[in-house]
Amino acid sequence: MSNSTNTLNGKALVTGASSGIGATYAERLAQRGHDLVLVARDLSRLEALAARLRDTGVKVDVLQADLTSPADLARVESRLREDADIGVLVNNAGVAVPGKLVDTDVDRVDSMLQLNITAPTRLAHAAAKAFSARGRGAIINIASVTALMPEGFSGTYSGTKAYILNLSQSMSSELHDAGVQVQAVLPGITRTEIWDRSGVGMHGLPAEMIMEVHELVDAALAGFELGEVVTIPSLPDVADWNAFSAARAALQPNLSRAHAATRYGVTQAN
């Protein structure tokens, strides 16, 4: 494969690979000739997917792991550090806990925080150290458009995805000169099992808002090749994102000043 900028190279490790977005990334990467390490809890599904993908001629390893388990997470981190053939991390595993915080089982929220924040952070850290030492690599973090709309969904779930967005943007800046490309993918409503697992389901959702998973992943990979740090597959005009980013940047000079803004009527300290 080419070593040019914005090109995926090497073996890919994909988390949450047993279904949905993760499985589709695995399929698309296998079609491109990438060997794979598939990570998920469901061993039977992983093995079935691996057998199917091996028919395309690529090598596929299965790594069963519950990423909320520190021991299992450590095994995946070790694989990222020690397997020099791995050049791509797809940080996809995640779960949604819907509903208002006051009505939610806080233990479920805590488990979600471990899977949606702690696990991808530790895996991104392991990959970043390994890839930057080799001078090449790609980290693809799956976030969500809810990162941009906390009032419209569970604040805990959208908060985890806002964290992944922030982490990705920061890592992209940190790792650019080391030859490591970082991308955050922000799916909208996508036809995957996460909806049924969350207990919400997709019944009643407008059809015009639901994207098929293969189209989502294909758009995300196209965004990677375009060099996008943030890819929103359903956004028609990238100028809208650029305007949002410019508005955020315009706030920065006034986010930390020696004195309170005059609109608060606070007397300056002597």
From TrEMBL:
Keyword Oxidoreductase recorded: yes
Keywords tagged on the record: Oxidoreductase
Keyword field contains Oxidoreductase: yes
Catalysed reaction, written as an equation: L-allo-threonine + NADP(+) = aminoacetone + CO2 + NADPH; 3-hydroxypropanoate + NADP(+) = 3-oxopropanoate + NADPH + H(+)
Source organism, top-level taxon: Bacteria
EC number(s) from the headed UniProt entry: 1.1.1.298, 1.1.1.381
GO terms assigned for molecular function: oxidoreductase activity
Broad enzyme group: oxidoreductase
Cross-referenced PROSITE patterns: ADH_SHORT
Summary of the function given for this chain in its UniProt record: NADP-dependent dehydrogenase with broad substrate specificity acting on 3-hydroxy acids. Catalyzes the NADP-dependent oxidation of L-allo-threonine to L-2-amino-3-keto-butyrate, which is spontaneously decarboxylated into aminoacetone. Also acts on D-threonine, L-serine, D-serine, D-3-hydroxyisobutyrate, L-3-hydroxyisobutyrate, D-glycerate and L-glycerate. Able to catalyze the reduction of the malonic semialdehyde to 3-hydroxypropionic acid.
Annotated family: Belongs to the short-chain dehydrogenases/reductases (SDR) family.
Protein name: NADP-dependent 3-hydroxy acid dehydrogenase YdfG
Taxonomic lineage of the native organism: Bacteria, Pseudomonadati, Pseudomonadota, Betaproteobacteria, Rhodocyclales
